[in-house]
Structures are given as structure tokens and as C-alpha cells.
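Section handout 9: paired folding examples.
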Amino acid sequence: MSIRNKNVSRLFFVFCLIGLLSAAPGVGLWGNDNPGNSYSNDQEQERIVEKVTVTNVEVPVRVLYKGEPVTDLTKDDFVLYESGKKMEINAFFLKRKKIKITPTAPVETVETQKAAALPRTFVLVFNVTSYNDEFQKAVDHLFDKVLLPTDQMMIFANDKTRKYPDLREKAKIKQQLVADLIEESQKSKRRLQQYINRLEAYLQVNDFRIKFSRRDTERPQRLISFLQKYLISWAEYKKLYLTPRVDRFYYFSRFLEKLKTEKWVLNFYQFEFFPRIRLGSDILIKMRNIASELSNSNNATSVAQGRKLDAILNQLSTELNLVQGFPNEEITKLFYKVDATFHSFFITSTNPTTMQDFDYKTVSSDLERVLKSITDVTGGRNISSNELVQSLETVSEVEDVYYILTYAPQDPNKKGKLKIKVTNRRCDVLYDDNFRADYISEYLQKLEEKIKTPDVKVIDFSFKQKVLAFTVKDFLMRKIENQPNPVGRIKVRIRLTDANGNSLFDSARILTAQKAEMKISIPAFSKIKKGDYNFLIDAQDMFTGKEDNFHQNIAVKR
């Protein structure tokens, strides 16, 4: 909740390709008999819509009790507030859908015939490192028991993506999918193994064990250096394999929003492993003991080393058990609007051979958490099991039930915050409290600005007479409140360290630029002594998020 490039891992599933789809917003995803006219009509419709006053708003609301949908509510059971004011609910609808299609009574009206003929779109997302018999059985079950010849389908299998306007050639499509999954899982496994091999070489574990057994004055620093390398390796792994890109979620939500079909997203997420230092290993026990011994000594240097070692060990524990910083709530809110139901299957991979003193453990990720959140708010099921056929049978019977409440906003031009309650019931009420806001368009507009704007740069560095000077350029200029002309907003962080890496200066400020280039001069370094130093300058464009990281070695001779 993939495409592989320098920054995006195999784990980053469907969202890694949606950017390609969004490049041509007027062309139907599944093809169009006359795409040119379709695009023209869409543009005309958008122009008309802009001029229409908002008189009624439809808000989808899911109501759950102990995780199961509540299906017997009436309009009188709901209370809706906008910006704190109680609003009248004008209309009320109950909607139901599930994957498994069962025979129904004969259709009697043209309207019900049209509703019954609504096509279905399935988006199948596979993140696979080990394609096995269970996956094969799941694919067979999907094509034999779930998918219909009239269904539309899009498939993301690691690096491969395919789309089908219908499934009339089921046997051929299934054969193609199986071939893709086998090929992509083999590629992913090779990539992962290559990473593990690099990690082992980088950490030099065997060499470290020999040096670790020696008792000498440099041992604490060796320990600290080893653990710092391990943290660097984890940061690299997290970036490559576990951290999804926010923009892909926006592209994917817009893609789903535009589909005028019944929409189902099935995610097959195979967990990744990362080598963790074994909790009961000799290495970890000894490192804890050494940290304690150093911290309780009478030598100030040893105490400092012991505290630093203990801090790094605690940081490791925290880092490996928690991935922070991803806007989970922001991303989840996008999918209230798209009328698609997600079902997510979480699958354990085969545990690879372990390095000595290391266990391979599955790691929690931002992608896993956001997938679970999206699945919850869209009425689907999260299932952790390698029994995929059984999991598919379960979700085929799950009915997605939700209510549509309509109301007239008090001010059509003001997007007020919503609060919806169910009276006299202890239920979980799921809805978007800012439903009228168009998060997707607002974000994509900013993203377009970001793409068009060159990368911000730090240039013309100098350190003459101990005065730091440099220029920041290529940032976005924009009109903001209380400013007569467009300005730039730049966050600049300046760090100075000595040859041993000790911090001597670290300061950050947000600056307003009146011109397209900002020249900065800082005479704050007159007291630094003779020696070698490092300047690190980070400049971030606050409007686009783009940044430049500049590093310069300097030698002060007197």
C-alpha cells in the first residue's frame, strides 16, 4: 500500500506506477473508444462544475461494532455537525457490496438492470519475494472462483504492471500473471540476498568478533563504530525496502476516484526480513556489560564512552521496532472518497540463513501500517496468514456496508469540519471530518510546482577571514499573505565540526528571500583556532520540500 528505482523498493507496491497513469488524466485507464472526445468532455464538465454552487454534499460513513458493520441504522440514528453547528440530514442511503456474487430475484426495472450491470474493477497487488504453491493456489482460486469474464483488472507484480479491459481470455491472462510472479519473485530474492551479503561484508562481523575479544583501550570505540555502521545499514535498508513515497498514494487515490465501477483492491504483502542482533547472543550480552562497566568507572572518558554505547544500544532497539515519520492519517483519509474496498493479506517469507549472532526477523513498516489503516476505513479485512485460498474465500464473503448521508452546507464556499455521531449506540463511526476538501488536487498541484521548480542549490561557498559566505538559488517564489511581491521561504541549517567530528556550531533558521537568489554571510567564526574543519550546509525550499546538502572541508591556518 511496486516499482524499483534508486529510491523505491520492491515493497513499494502499486503506488510506484500510478504516476505514469496520471500523466494523461483524460485517457481512460482501461482504454476508450474515443479518448480524444472523452478528454474534451471531461474538461468541459470540470469548467461547468466550477460554476455550480454546492447545494448538497454526500458523505460516506461506516459504522462498526466490535469490528463488524452495523446494518440496521436509520436516518434518525445519525447526528451531523458542520463547524459545530447541527445540520439537517436531507437524505440517507444504505449501500452494500461483496465480492461473491449470489443469485438474486429477477430484475424488474430498467434502473435495477443498470445497477446490476455495473462492471467490477479488480486491482491485484503482489509484493513477492518467494512465489510458492500457496501463491499458485491463490491465483488458481482467483481465476476459477472470483473473477468474471466481464471484470476489468489491473495487476501490479513487483516491477511489472499490466491492465486488462476484460477477462475473456482468462487462461492466457493467468499464464501471464504466473510467469510475471515467478520472474519478479526471483529477481527480488536475488536483490535481497545481494543486500544481505553486502551488509555482512560491510559490518565485517567475523573480523569484529576477533577484535571484540581483545581487551584494549580502543575496544569501546570499536564497539561504537560497529553499532553506528549497523544503524547506517538499517537506515539504508529502511529507505530502500520499507519507506513508501507519499506522492504515489495520491496518484493511486486519484486513479481509483476516476473509475466509475465497483472497485476492489487485493493486496498480497510478503514481509521482509532484516538481520537483528540476537537478544541472547554473546555479542549483545557482552556489549551491555561493557557499557555498564564503563558507565560506572571513575574515569570521565570511560563514563562518556559507556553512556554513548548504552545510548546507541537503546537507539537500535527503538529503531528496529518502530518506523516513524510517515503521514499515516493523512494518507488514509484519501481513500474515504474513492469508493473502493481494500482487502490486505500479510504473508510470512521463508527465513533466510542467519549470520552468527543475528536473527532474521520480520520488520514492521510504514507501508504495512498504512495498508492496514486504508483497509479498515474502506470496509475490508486485514488477514495475516499464508493460507491464501482460505483468506480469499473469507474476504469473498465479507460484505462492505456503509451509509451515505447528505446535507446542505451552511456556506457553500467554506469547507467546514464535520462531526458525525450515532445516537444511543456504542459504535465506531468512520468518516472524513473534512470531506469537502480536495486533498488530492491540492497535493498534486503542489507536486506539479515541485516538479517544475529546479532543485534548490547552495553555491559560491567561501570562508575568507573566518567569515562564512554562500548563495542559495533555484527555489520557488510565491505570493504569500502580508507580502506585496512573491517571496521564497528557505530553511537553512549550518553545522561546523572539527576533524574528530565534534560539533562546534549547529544552527537552523527559516529565511524569507525577496529575490531569486539569496546571499548569506555569517561572521560568527572568529574564535575558531588553527586546524581542519568541516562545514555542512542544508538548504530546504519550504514551498516544494526540495533540498540541497552541501559539504566543504576547510583548513584554518591561524
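Moving on to protein 2 of 2.
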Amino acid sequence: MARDDASRWSNAVAVYPVTLLAVLVALLSAAPCHGQKTERPNILIILADDQGWGDLSVHGNKNLSTPNIDSLARDGALFERFFVCPVCSPTRAEFLTGRYHPRGGVYSTSTGGERLDLDEKTIAQWFKEAGYATAAFGKWHNGMQHPYHPNARGFDEYYGFCSGHWGNYFDPVLEHNGKLVRGKGYITDDFTNHAIEFITRHKDQPFFCYVPFNTPHSPMQVPDRFYKKFANLELQCRHREPEKEDVAFTRAALAMCENIDWNVGRLLKTLEELHLAENTIVIYFSDNGPNSWRFNGGMRGRKGSTDEGGVRVPFLIRWPGKIRAGRRIPQIAAAIDLLPTLADLAGIEIKGGKPLDGISLKPLLLGNARSWPDRMIFSHWNGRVSVRTQRYRLDHTGKLYDMLNDPGQDRDISQQEKETAARLAKAVAKWKKELLTGRRKDRPFPVGYAPVTHLPARDGVPHGNIRRSGRAPNCSFFTNWRSPQDKITWDIEVAQAGTYEVTIYYTCPASDVGAQFEVAFGESQLRGKVTEAHDPPLRGKEHDRVDRGSESYVKDFKPMRVGVMELPKARGMLTLKALEVPGKQVMEVRYVVLTRR
């Protein structure tokens, strides 16, 4: 500062000592010092299950009203072309890691193929290391036993179910940090209640709250207060081929979507009441296309398809004061982009992990992207791969579509655009070679990494007469166990040798009590006997709005303590077999639970 300037500054302070000093203090307090850490934003991510792009009123569906979800687009940004996987667990894996799901070992939706490899680092782990409180409330679907469990993948708290789908949505059996508990009320409302409690507890520190709802996935169950509007609704918006649409199913799905919207409203209201809205990034998206033929903007394909309708979903993001309200973003983006984007927005450096397939969307969100290069986004399921650029989609059969002029994929232009078709086909071949060759691993189910290990029927293999209660393994139980020649096996690897208490969750009518059985692993055997009847009815049908087809109903299984056995540190088959069957059956089995003592 020059001498004359210093003199004038000194005189000014002398004349106006209180006022000027107060202003100076205020300015210094408001201005961030060099190197000062700024407050990191909270993160709230809401994921719907089987909700299509067309299941929101913001996308033009006049059959329903989703004002709370729509408000995120009004107050934030809406991605017009956001892509995920054709089914559940792959999308979740890509969100968690920022990498295409085959890289993380996810190849199916059940019986172990849904598990995310243990050497993959999740978004929750990155944020937890940065000082965030982390939690997930809902459907996990990327592994159940520790160390695949969400509590072992960066989430301090977990409440929900780890399977691919659940058989009953009213007062269901769930788990809380590894312990089986009874849920309260309708499942989506219950998940929201727990998320609100978590946000309230952690309002004074940065939090990362992941709320993966499990609706409108089947079974199609929803409270009366939401369903009554749709029970006899004449649909205004229909599927592009209306003869394919199951109107009753659509009505139930729409009611479930309005229930989701109500719960989103509750979460947003909580942020407002706690004065957290301004510093919380809220994201809403879905995990795949719709689970039935219903309105989806005229796109081809649905859940399970790598066509546009199977992989294009809603994506809305709000961060008041940072993301301009009402922004519409036409550039293509995907679930693999969420980890790098959120880390970038939160100022978390992703360093030392595996290379990401996703990119940060921060420049698009904040409006400072001077240019944005075209890119390729690949969609894969069951060996079928399609690729999307900003303008084109090459489907899994090699047909090329101009998505800007033909969003319904009605006209194959591969012969007219041979160079483009060849270029994209070459990219698909390279992607397949890199990601689908030799990726499937032989992975047993781990035991002993946590005090309690659940081995559900989903992860077991029936032999002989034994059958699953439904076609889909996820929420099934074993039934029709009739003879000593029948058995159930689990391919396990015991990480810690020791004494384990064995508990079986079972049902058995009074007429069949008395069966004797054996649990064996290597040289260790434990014998037990069914001594008490437990014969509850099937549950779920009373709440179904439409028939669930081949999906299993559920029962309230009872725990039977069998005893303790020594398990060596080894891999092998945990085998459950009958020794004597005095009645028509041994028992029905939902879980074998191993508790380390």
C-alpha cells in the first residue's frame, strides 16, 4: 500500500472507527481465505425400480400426476437422454462404481450373479472417506453376504432387502444392518421414514443418502389411497402398440408411481424444514425401462431390452443456486457418469481407483461447457449389446437408427449410412471383447466375514424332488422336500474357522413333524429334528392388484436352532439333507443362518 493511501486509510478509521471496522470485519468474515475448505453439499439419490421414462407427468403422461418429482426439473435440470441398463442389478453396479457392470462381475440378477466384485470401490466408500455419513434404504441387489453387503461397501447404515425383488410390500420381513426385522407399513413409505430419520440425525454434517425404492417393480401392490384413483381409470396415454398393453397392470404401476411421488415430496419437505435444501444435491432416476407395455413416449423396447425404451429413463437433478432452474440438457449421459459427477460437484478427488467409464457432467450442469464431444454409451444384457451416440443407435442385431429423426426406431438406415454402421459395429465388437470375454468368475458365497451370515434359498441349489416356490429365485423358498435322496446345497467359502451356530428358517405342518435331517460341511456334521409345527399361510395375494404369475408368494418362516458345528477355513458345499421322513415332507426352507460364536 502506498504511503498516501495508508495515511488516508488511517484517518478514515480514526473518523469512523466503529462503522468502518464493523464493515471490515463483516467483509473478512464473508470472504473465503485462500485454502479454506468450503462446505460440501449433502447428497440425496432416489432410485425407482422398473419405472419407465414415460411414467412421469413431466414427460407428458396424462394418466398420472407426479408434481414432486417434476419439481426437480422445474427447480433444477432434466437430462433428456439419460441411459441405464436393461435390468436392475447392472444399473446399480454402474451407479456405484462409475464403470460398466461386466467389469465388476455382475452378470445376472440372482443366484450370485448380481454381486459386485470386492475389488470395486463404491461411491459410498469414496464419500465416506471424505467425511460423509452414508446410508442406504431400500433394494440393494448387489450382494447379500459380507463383504458384499452394503454395510461392507461404504454404507454406515442399511435398511431394506438385498435381493432382487420382494414378495410382499406390507409389513414385510426386512433387515437392518444385517439383522432381520419386521417392516412397518407399506414398504416404500417405510424406506422413506428411515431416510428421513437419517437425514434428521445427520443434519449438521455432510450426508450421502441413497434411497433405492423397489417400486413399481412387481408384485403390483399399493395402498388403497393411491390405487382408488386408478382402479377404473380410462387411460389417455397408451403404449405405441395398445393391443400389447395390460391395462390393469398399467393402472397398478401408475398408482405405485404416485406413491413414489408422495414419498419424494416427503423427502423434499424434510430438506426444507431442516434448512438443508440449498446445500443438498437431489437426484431422481430409474434403473431400467418399464416392466410392462405402457406409455413410454413411443420408444421401442421395455425392461430387458437394449433398445431405447429399455434403457432410457428419467433423470432429474436439483442443486439450488448452483444448477440453473429449468435447465434442459440434450447431451447423452448415463449411470456410469454419476460417481465422477457427484465427486466433482462435492470436491472429492477420485484418485487411486480403477479407471472409470463415466465422465463428469459438471460442465453441463453448471452451464460452463464450451464444447461437448460426442461419445458412445453401451447397453448390455444377456450378451446383447447396443451402442448410442448423440444421434444414432446401433441395435444388437446391427440395425442403425437415426434417433433424432426416428426416435421410435422404426427405420433401419444401416444401408444408407454404411460408414456409420460399420464404425459403431467395430466399437461394439471391441467393447464385447474387452468386457465380455472371460469375465464370469467362480465365486462361492462367503461365510464368516461378519458375525452372522444368511444363506437364503435364492443362493442354494435344490436336488431331487425339491423345488423353488416360484420361478424367480430372488424371494423364493424351497419346498417339496420329500425323501432322503433330496438335498439342498450352498457353495460357500468359510473365511474364519470356528464354531458356528446353525439356525434354519422353516415351516412344517403338524402332520409332518418328526423328520430328521443333517447339516454337513466337509468332515463336520450336525443332526437335527423338526419337533415343532409351524404352518403359516402364504402371504401376498391379498394385496396384489393383478396376478403375479410365476413369482413366489411368501410365508412367515420360523427360526429353528439346530445346534453348533465346527467349520474349517475352506471352500465346499454346505449340504442340508434328510435322514428320516415319517410324513409327506421334511420342511420348507427359507434361510440357513450361520452365527459365529
